[in-house]
């Protein structure tokens, strides 16, 4: 498994990593979340020895990660690094060769991954001729071509169309089923909620939440309530400990502090009109995220 322990990194006065620590098991897809500047990219770069850490360690199966081990990892960096003038197929095959594939294996794997990523018909095109989303697919093929044991993807879904998102989500799930450890960063929390068992949320360079998504949702210190009242729709306003999260088609989603008296709240809703709906809903991952990184 991948283990990151007590990672510290400063850039001058900026603390990028401040004790960041978590692990990723084989066969697991972990969604790596955090606000802009929280330290996700720095953490991912540290796995590949691209950041000189001030403190901390990164290990794979208990051992420090050397060059040989890294050849068995796949990485899609934030700053995408394809050569604009090379064809897609040459490029992906070249990444395969860099990671130890023989020439014929590299060609075969390139064809396979480009087809799976929906780029089979563009394999002879130069990278610069591709749209942004298709360049992204080519970059993903370059990260996958050598069948890595660990996949680390920095914002792999950003820029993909809905079909591309679905395709990549399926591919990552299939890789995880094949025993690959998958870590990816994303700001698309609905997607993470659908795809991942586990999420790690970082803020200010440290992990603020880590666990199975279902448990993180259950452990929220707030309750979320959806109510539809036909009558005075603003009945919930000015009630202490009650805040509005969303309102749509007459249904309000409210966040309640732990000490809000539910009997009193129900009475207030009744006084306001006919109640069509009054249900508790666990928080979404997006709500869990907002609670965890509240400033
Ligand atoms: P985003 O979601 O915006 O991609 P992130 O979570 O990936 O953000 P990082 O890119 O890891 O965040 O940045 C963490 C902090 O470290 C930020 O404050 C950033 O400005 C700083 N930082 C990162 N790399 C460098 C660098 N090479 N030099 C100076 N500061 C840096």
Could you give a quick summary of the protein structure above?
The chain has helices spanning 40-47, 67-70, 88-98, 103-116, 132-144, 162-177, 189-195, 213-218, 262-272, 285-292; strands spanning 2-11, 14-24, 29-33, 55-60, 63-64, 73-76, 150-153, 181-185, 198-203, 206-212, 223-231, 242-248, 251-256, 273-281.
CATH superfamily of the largest domain: P-loop containing nucleotide triphosphate hydrolases
Order the strands across the largest sheet as they lie in space.
Answer: 6-7-8-3-9-10
If classified by CATH, what would the architecture of the largest domain be?
3-Layer(aba) Sandwich
Biggest pleated-sheet summary? 6 strands, mixed
The level of helicity is 25-40%
User: What fold name goes in the CATH topology slot of the largest domain?
Assistant: Rossmann fold
The count of domains is 2
Spans of at least 5 consecutive residues whose pLDDT stays below 50 are none
Range of strand content = 25-35%
Shape: elongated
CATH top-level class of the largest domain: Alpha Beta
> How far apart, in Å, are the first and last alpha carbons?
33 Å
Order of helices and strands: EEEHEEHEHHHEHEHEEHEEEHEH
The whole-angstrom Rg is 23 Å
Number of strands: 14
Mean pLDDT: 94
């Amino acid at each position: 498994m991948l283990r990151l322990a007590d990672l510290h990194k400063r850039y001058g006065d900026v603390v990028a990593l401040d004790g960041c620590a978590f692990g990723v098991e084989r066969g697991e897809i972990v969604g790596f979340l955090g606000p802009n500047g929280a330290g996700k990219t720095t953490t991912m770069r540290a796995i590949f020895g691209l950041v000189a850490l001030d403190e901390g360690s990164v290990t794979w199966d208990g051992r420090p990660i050397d060059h040989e081990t890294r050849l068995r990892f796949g990485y899609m960096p934030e700053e995408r690094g394809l050569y604009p003038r090379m064809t897609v197929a040459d490029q992906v095959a070249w990444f395969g060769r860099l990671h130890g594939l023989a020439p014929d294996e590299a060609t075969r794997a390139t064809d396979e991954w480009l087809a799976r990523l929906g780029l089979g018909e563009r394999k002879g095109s130069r990278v610069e001729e591709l749209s942004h989303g298709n360049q992204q697919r080519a970059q993903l093929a370059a990260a996958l071509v050598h069948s890595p044991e660990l996949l680390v993807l920095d914002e792999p879904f950003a820029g993909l169309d809905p079909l591309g998102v679905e395709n990549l989500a399926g591919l990552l799930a299939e890789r995880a089923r094949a025993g690959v450890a998958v870590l990816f960063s994303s700001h698309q929390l609905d997607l993470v909620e659908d795809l991942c068992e586990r999420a790690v949320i970082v803020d200010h360079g440290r992990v603020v939440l880590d666990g199975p998504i279902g448990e993180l949702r259950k452990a929220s210190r707030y309750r979320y309530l959806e109510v539809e009242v036909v009558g005075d729709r603003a009945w919930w306003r000015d009630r202490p400990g009650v805040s509005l999260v969303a309102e749509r088609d007459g249904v309000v989603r409210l966040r309640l502090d732990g000490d809000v008296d539910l009997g009193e709240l129900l009475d207030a809703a009744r006084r306001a009109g006919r109640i069509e709906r009054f249900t508790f809903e666990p928080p979404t991952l997006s709500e869990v995220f907002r609670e965890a990184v509240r400033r």
